[in-house]
Design a protein that fits this description.
Length: 308
Amino acid sequence: MKNQTIQTVSTISDFHKFRGLKPPEHPLISLVDYKLVKHFPEHDKIGWLQKYYSISLKKDVPGKFRYGQMEYDFDGGLMSFFAPNQILSIEYVAPDRTKRAPSGWILLIHPDFLWNTPLAKNIKQYDFFNYALTEALFLSEKEEKTVEGILKNIQQEYQSNIDKFSQDIIVSQVELLLNYAKRFYERQFITRKINNHALLGQLEEILEQYFEQGNVAEFGLPSVQFVADSLNVTPNYLSSSLKNISGLNTQQHIHEKLIEKAKEKLSTTQLTVSEIAYELGFEHPQSFSKLFKAKTNQSPLKFRESFS
């Protein structure tokens, strides 16, 4: 958004104040009832840099959210995940009185709450914290009940008398929530396989065009980020989708295309292995030969000999 003001929201207490809520019951973790979240006119088209994890389950939210270059209209129930140090923007839209009021939950977790637990490190393995809003998780009614049950368990625990077991119990519930989300995303990848297969076809077109135009010789292999940007998806979501369809992530698909082009040149041209390596973006022919052998179990020369 043009001329957007970015406001840093460092703590969960800051978020509560920012959204017109009562102070949190716990300074490092809070489950917010979305119906209580207030919008202030001065926050219209504002962006905020949050310093905590947030996991949201929302329905019928009257606003257009922007995440990076992606925009999404929350007109249905969905689940989204945000890691610390990400900028989220909202463009407020007045609610339609003929529709249901916004509802849902936002779980806020400060990184300090996870300190000295395995999840502090393992949470980075959940790729969906780096998905865009357009790649949110759509839940079935049964899945929503599962998620809401875990969220309520977390709230009940931090509202109880805090003791030496509290952190471990809450963290185990958060991990359970993330593992269910991982399962539900797998289900979403499967139910959306038609769209994902289209994504695979588009990936093939982008890679073919990149190699055919000679970009690889000048710029080297296309990066995962380049491919994802070309497809208007995030790198993590792209790799997860491709792996679900083909068993290969984006980097592996790039290497597969590279090997395909290398085989084509080895079998149909008189170029030396070094010349082919340079044409395919390698500064050192040894690196090309090593990768080719790793992928095909034979050296480039051995492969060429099979066509003699």
